[in-house]
Amino acid sequence: MRRWVPFLLIVLAVLLLDQLSKQWVLENIALGETYLVIPQLHPYFQFTYSANTGAAFGIFPEAGALFQFLPLVIVVVMLYFVYRSGATDDIMRIGFGLAVGGALGNVIDRLQHGHVIDFFHVYIPQINLSNVSNFADHAIVLGVMILLVDNLWQERKNKTEAQVSPDEVSSGDA
């Protein structure tokens, strides 16, 4: 039970923040309209209501139907990993909680609206990057980053533990 409580709290927090923010967008911004959150940050950051039929951050817009079911399969796989996790795998459960919460937030949108509601509009002129996303997308990315870092850290820890120093081998043979 200890492994499920923090995981579920993170999933619920991401879902709540994501769905409340999207509801605010639906009530206050028309599709395609831009809202200046902090006017001094325009054009680098604003809210722009966008209907995303693709994957996270708007990639693969033509594969919308696939993204109604694929996240659910991935969520089931993640739940299996959380179930199989050890008592000390808290960082891994945080990563999975963020990713699952984000995936479910976007699935709810697809089922309710036929698309994902995106609104964080970031523009980086130096590389001509303009992207519109949402809390769920960012939770997924942050969760995956945490999982990757945790995995690398665990591999390094296991490798270090598996290595036996020459002094330990010599003193053990004596």
Automatic annotation (TrEMBL):
Membrane topology of the entry: Multi-pass membrane protein
InterPro entries named among the record's database cross-references: Peptidase_A8
Recorded superkingdom: Bacteria
Cell compartments where the protein resides: Cell membrane
Family: Belongs to the peptidase A8 family.
Pathway(s) of this molecule: Protein modification; lipoprotein biosynthesis (signal peptide cleavage)
Function recorded in the entry: This protein specifically catalyzes the removal of signal peptides from prolipoproteins.
Chain ranges passing through the membrane: 65-83
Enzyme Commission number(s): 3.4.23.36
Keywords per UniProt: Aspartyl protease, Cell membrane, Hydrolase, Membrane, Protease, Transmembrane, Transmembrane helix
The species this protein was found in: Phototrophicus methaneseepsis
GO biological process, one term: proteolysis
Recorded catalytic activity of this chain's protein: Release of signal peptides from bacterial membrane prolipoproteins. Hydrolyzes -Xaa-Yaa-Zaa-|-(S,diacylglyceryl)Cys-, in which Xaa is hydrophobic (preferably Leu), and Yaa (Ala or Ser) and Zaa (Gly or Ala) have small, neutral side chains
Protein name: Lipoprotein signal peptidase
HAMAP family, sorted: LspA
Gene it is expressed from: lspA
Gene Ontology molecular function terms on file: aspartic-type endopeptidase activity
Any single GO CC term annotated in Swiss-Prot or TrEMBL for this entry: plasma membrane
Active site: D118, D137
One family name in Pfam for this protein: Peptidase_A8
